[in-house]
C-alpha cells in the first residue's frame, strides 16, 4: 500500500449497534481525532456527542458510493473518519471504501472493527450464537436471489445457527416469508427464534418465539430487524435462547 | 427471569480481541463496577489495568465449567463479571454461564457484547467479510467431526466467505489440512485467504495468501489463529483482501 506524502488518513470506523456506550475506545479516539466525519444521517446522529468538533458530511442511505468517494478524496490531505454501523466489515463500509481507494487511491487507510448488530442482538437474547453460525442478508439489491436461496438451504441443512440481516428489503417484502419456508424444510417448528429490532437504540424490541410461529410477527419485522434462528440443539429458557456449545456432551453439571 | 432479593448481579462481558482499546465503554463500566472478576489467566492479564480494583478469580483454560459455577454462585450476593474473549456469544462464555444459571440460578444476568476476533482479523485484512459468511470452529472437543465436515462442505458449496476458528486443536492437528481439502473441492486455488494470529495482541501476525498455497503456512497456524477464506468474488489488493458486496453489479465507479 503506497502512502501519500501529505498528512491525510482515512479511518473506516465500526461504531457498533447504536448507543455510544458500545463504541470502543479506539473508535472513539479515531472519531475525536478526525477533522471530517462522513456517514449517513442515522449513524451521525447516534454519534452526535462524540463528533461535535468535526466537520460533518452527511448523505442519505443509498448514497454509499458518493460518500465513499468523498471520504477518499478528503483523506488525501485531511484526517477523515467514515462511519459504518456495527462492524466496518459485516455488511459495513470497508468493502466499498477499499474498492474506491483501489481505483482512486494513494491514501492511508485504517479499519477499526466494531460490535456487530448480530452480537448485540445475541446478547439481548441470551446465548443463541455460541456454536457455528451463518450470516445471510436477504437484500437482493446486491446479491442475486438464487444465491441467497442456495445459502439459506445450505445453512439450514448443515444445522448452522442462522442470522438474517435485512429480512425485508424495501421493494421485496415477500423475501422473508420465502426464507422461512426454506428453513422450515430442514428445521422443526419448535426451533427457537429471536427477533431483535433497534438493538441498543430507541424502540428496542426483543421477541423470542419459535420457527412455527415466526410469521405471527411478520408485521413487526422490517429492514432494521435482525432475526436469529437456532440450531437443532437450541432451546428456550424463559424469554431467552440457549444454544449449547456441546458442554453437555462432555461434562456433568 | 426471577431476580434474587440480594444486590448481586452477573455480567458476562465480551472484552474484544485483546488490547484494552477494543473494549467498549459499557464493558469497561461493568468491569470497573464489579467486586469480583472471573476469567482465564490470559484474558485477565489483558484487562489487568481495568480490573486492578477487583477481587480476581482465575482459572486455566479448560476450567470453564468450574469458573461459570463460581461466578453464578458469587453473583447471588455480589456484583460479578465473568469475562469472555471477543464477544460473549461467539464461541464465548454466554452459553455455558446461562446453562449453569438455568440449573443453579436465581441470579440476575446481563450480557455485554464485544468485538469478535473475526471482526478484528477482518479489519487487519481489509474487507474480506462484507458479504454473507459462515463461521466454523474445527475444535472437535465439543462438536462431532461429521457435523464439522458437513458444515464445511455446505458453506464452501454455497459460496459463503468462511471464517475458521480453532484451526488446530491440541490433539487433532490434522483437522485443518482436512478442512482445506474439503473447501478446495468447491473453490479455486487462487481464492484469497487471510491468516491472522494474535490480532491486536503481542505477536500479531497477518498473512494474505491463496487457498492453493495455504498449507505453506501450516506450521504458523495454531489454536489462536483465525483463518478467513474468501468467496468466489474475493480478490487480493496488495496485501489486503476485498470481497465486493455487489456494488460492481449495480454502480459504475
Automatic annotation (TrEMBL), chains A, B:
CDD domains: Precorrin_3B_C17_MT (cd11646). This is Precorrin-3B C17-methyltransferase. InterPro entries: 4pyrrol_Mease (IPR000878), 4pyrrol_Methylase_sf (IPR035996), 4pyrrole_Mease_sub1 (IPR014777), 4pyrrole_Mease_sub2 (IPR014776), Cbl_synth_CobJ/CibH_dom (IPR006363), Precorrin_MeTrfase (IPR051810). It comes from the Archaea. One of its GO terms (biological process) is methylation. GO terms for molecular function: methyltransferase activity. Pfam families: TP_methylase. Gene3D superfamilies: Cobalt-precorrin-4 Transmethylase, Domain 1 (3.40.1010.10), Methyltransferase, Cobalt-precorrin-4 Transmethylase, Domain 2 (3.30.950.10). Keywords: Cobalamin biosynthesis, Methyltransferase, S-adenosyl-L-methionine, Transferase. Pathway: Cofactor biosynthesis; adenosylcobalamin biosynthesis. The keyword Transferase applies. Residues 9-214 form the Tetrapyrrole methylase domain.
